[in-house]
Amino acid sequence: MVQINDISEMMGELNKESSIQALGSKTGVDASILPKLAVVAIPLILRALSKNAESKAGKDSLSDALEKHKGQTKDVSSIEDVFKKVDTDDGDKILDHAFGDKDKVVDQIAAQTGISKSEVAKVLASMAPMILGMLADKKDADGLDADGVAKQTDIFSKQAEETATSNFDITDLFPKQSGTTTPSATGGLGGILGSILGNLFWSKTK
Does pLDDT of 39 surpass 60? Predict the structure, then answer.
């Protein structure tokens, strides 16, 4: 049995051929780019969730949403089992809430990577329920309130970015990233995430 309650463990599982095959079957994305795109999706979604949870309304909304995702990653036999059962319609709803403008995020990733919009959307929608499931089981196990959920989401977000930076080389996936011009685009994975999410969240605050 696999206890997916650790970001590093989850991302490490994405290196396994069986996990790639399961996610590939779900999304139809080529195995040569799938792990890197999935690894980018995890900190991207977590950073968006963490950003939304900076407000009281946002953290309350996230905490309430997690109640609907309990048990999805707890004591599963493997991460591929999670992928096989994942509800991508639910994933789309999660992305709409996390990003506000999901299509804009998909468009930016597709433009920077050359991967089709439909493939990007499928990978993001497949990863989102697993991420919420992991947060939900962490909330349940540790008895977290809304403030605790917000803090844990931020911790997971930073851990995901650190793990991706340390263990995966994803810079070649974003050959056009150097041409982006946002204050957040400072290089590396952090710059990539900032370039994708920066304008999106600035527009929310205007």
Answer: yes
